[in-house]
Amino acid sequence: MNPIRLALSRAFNHATLPAGMQRASCAMSLPLGVDGEVPEWCPVIPAGTFSGRDGRGPWHADINAILTEFAANQAQGIEPVVDYDHLSMVCLETGQRAPAAAWVKQLQDRDGETWARMEWNAAASAAIQAKEWRYLSPVFDFDASGRVVRLVSVGLTNNPNLFLRALNSQENRMDPIDQLLQQLGVSITDAMDAASKLAAALSAIQTLQSVTASTQTAMNSLRQATGAAADADLITVANSIMSSFVPRAEYERVANSLAQLQQGSRESELDKALDDAIKGGKIAPASRSYFRAMASQDMKAFQDFIKGAPAIIQPGATETSRAANTQQADQGKGDNALIANAKARAAAK
Predict the structure, then answer these.
(1) Tens digit of pLDDT for each residue in 309-336?
(2) What average pLDDT is seen over the chain?
(3) SS3 readout for the chain
(4) Under the phi-then-psi rule, with left for phi > 0, alpha for psi from -120 to 50, and beta for the rest, what region is 116?
(5) How far is CA 58 from CA 54, 109, 116, 149, in A?
(6) How far are the Cα atoms of 13, 19, 52, 139, 330 from residue 25, in angstroms, in the given order?
(7) Mean pLDDT, consecutive 10-residue segments, the chain of 349 residues?
(8) How far apart are the C-alpha atoms of 21 and 15, rounded to whole Å?
(9) Residues 6+ apart with CB under 8 A from 56
(10) 106-109 contacts: CB < 8 A, separation 24 or more?
């Protein structure tokens, strides 16, 4: 099969037409004038029942449906193209240019036969006059009963036959495996043959299945954690999560309040420890700030110090008498017990 025939066969056999509709093409002779002039009006769809040269069919034209469809499309600025060897049907697949030879400007019912008024361009007219092209091959849509309802396009051809068409000229004619790889996000290179493309597609599908399974597992865990239904979708689960947590501003307010309470409790603990130490005569009231700083840094060390320190002031004595008594008691005897203990702790570090 030649490349054009092969491309047409691929394109015509992969169409996505409306339910119950199919597409076909068959060739008719190009009626040149007496002097070889290019005809303006040409028959494009036979009257009555007809078939292709290869036996496909039979079809019968519904002329009213064909004319109605043509008028509706033309009102939207869409007219059937006359091209060369149906290239407009396969250009996206083959990468070939598909220049127009003419445009169908009008259709007429001539005793049940559909005729088209062609607006030829200069290049096509010259080629036809030079007898480079001999036949017209219309492409049409038909239903399950063989009723032809739409003229799609017309091709100049020298090899009249029938080709079933499955993609219209506005659709992507990429190879199905290439389309699959594209959808899977796999890059296609010129070095890839059919086997390597298939292997790449299978690998991508396996990866996708693995990711899907992991995602499903995670979704199930989220559903269980939030108490959502077993079939809840992601949006429902996300909304459940958002409604289950305290807004950040509220969290910060509560956290600050808790920190203040904890700080107040710590301050109270420090004050009580210092008050007890002073009442027990272990430290002088005048040294409270110093020992407060010590206790703030290490409460346990302060408590250990108080526990082992001797009473340097008689409990219940006034600060004046405590200071005097301490001085008298310690005259000529060097440092008092508090100072000596502090020096000893400093030397030990």
Answers:
(1) 887 776 655 554 444 444 444 444 555 5
(2) 75
(3) CCHHHHHHHHHHCCCCCCCCEEEEECCEECCCCCCCCCCCEEEEECCCEECCCCCCCCEEECHHHHHHHHHHHHHCCCCCEEEECCHHHHHHHHCCCCCCCEEEEEEEEECCEEEEEEEECHHHHHHHHCCCCCEEEEEEEEECCCEEEEEEEEEEECCCCCCCECCCCCCCCCCHHHHHHHHHCCCCCCCCCHHHHHHHHHHHHHHHHHHHHHHHHHHHHHHHHHCCCCCCCHHHHHHHHHHHCCCHHHHHHHHHHHHHHHHHHHHHHHHHHHHHHHHCCCCCHHHHHHHHHHHHHCHHHHHHHHHHCCCCCCCCCCHHHHHHHHHHHHCCCCCCHHHHHHHHHHHHC
(4) beta
(5) 11, 20, 22, 14
(6) 12, 19, 8, 4, 126
(7) 42 48 62 72 87 78 92 92 84 76 94 92 90 86 87 84 35 62 80 85 86 83 80 76 66 74 80 85 83 84 84 60 44 57 66
(8) 10
(9) 24, 162, 164
(10) 107/44, 107/66, 107/67, 107/70, 107/151, 108/41, 109/63, 109/67
